[in-house]
Amino acid sequence: QVQLVQSGAEVKKPGASVKVSCKASGYTFSDYHMHWVRQAPGQGLEWMGRINPNNGATNYAQKFQGRVTMTRDTSISTAYMELSRLRSDDTALYYCARIRSGNGYNLDHWGQGTLVTVS
Amino acid sequence: EIVLTQSPGTLSLSPGERATLSCRASQGVSSTYLAWYQQKPGQPPRLLIYGALDRATGIPDRFSGSGSGTDFTLSISRLEPEDFAVYYCQHTETFGQGTTLEIK
């Protein structure tokens, strides 16, 4: 079965960077785009960007351009999301999520979330 | 930039009733990329509907999606206790703000 297992919670100071990992299993990692979505405490969902694990191509939400970097290591079926110049309003639960199929945005498998606290 | 507005913000219903949730786009959008998610406390979102009307794998048939252009609807025909949650619509990079479905 498809599983996405994310790295543990992080506490960072303003101005620092954080790198969250997402290890995939149960399917061919390179065949499905991986997206990153975040959710601030008590708030809604916010799309951050996506990566094509096959070739490393990325698309980022304009809001995060210049601060976010998404990468992958196909040898260990793991995707990464790094966010730099952290601010207090970056405190959120960060999810990786796999596309259902093709090149769209329907996310049918999600990681458990990684809480990043900026304080 | 497309904005998705969901209504109502909170919907109070009883088990067994029918729920109708709305998602309105600020401009016409492709139904291909219109999805609905359910999120329960402490859990990640779960894909319910994609392509505006197709149920995702394992989703009960009491959930149905409809709509086109700017107006989309998620309907739940007979509410079960486990259906009380927050529901989000999505079009490509944009999510609606969510509708909370609570027990009356």
What features would you describe in this structure?
The complex is a heterodimer of chains A (119) and B (104). Chain A has 119 residues and is an all-beta fold. Helix content of chain A is 0%, strand content 50%. Chain A has no helices and 11 strands. Chain A has strands spanning 3-6, 10-12, 18-25, 34-39, 45-51, 58-60, 68-73, 78-83, 92-99, 107-110, 114-118. In chain A, strands 2, 4, 5, 6, 9, 10 and 11 form a 7-stranded mixed sheet that branches. In chain A, β9 and β10 form a beta hairpin. The mean pLDDT of chain A is 97. Chain B has 104 residues and is mostly beta strands. Chain B is 0% helix and 57% strand. Chain B has strands at 4-7, 10-13, 19-29, 34-39, 46-50, 54-55, 63-76, 86-91, 94-95, 99-103. In chain B, the strands form 2 sheets. In chain B, strands 2, 4, 5, 6, 8, 9 and 10 form a 7-stranded mixed sheet that branches. A 3-stranded antiparallel sheet of chain B has the order 1-3-7, with no helix packed on it. In chain B, a hairpin with a 6-residue loop joins β4 (34-39) and β5. Chain B is globular and about 35 Å long. Chain A binds chain B through residues 37, 44-47, 61, 95, 97, 100, 104-108, 110-113, and chain B through 32-33, 35, 37, 39, 44-47, 50-51, 56-57, 88, 90-98.
Give the gist of this structure:
The complex is a heterodimer of chains A (119) and B (104). Chain A is mainly β.
- Which pair of chains forms the biggest interface, and how many residues does each contribute? A-B, 18 and 23 residues
**Backbone structural class of chain A:** mainly beta
Number of strands of chain B: 10
Written as H for each helix and E for each strand, in order along the chain, the element string of chain A is: EEEEEEEEEEE
What Rg of chain B, in angstroms, do the CA atoms define? 13 Å
State Rg of chain A. 13 Å
Distance between the termini of chain A: 37 Å
Largest sheet of chain B: 7 strands, mixed
Largest sheet of chain A: 7 strands, mixed
Shape category of chain A? globular
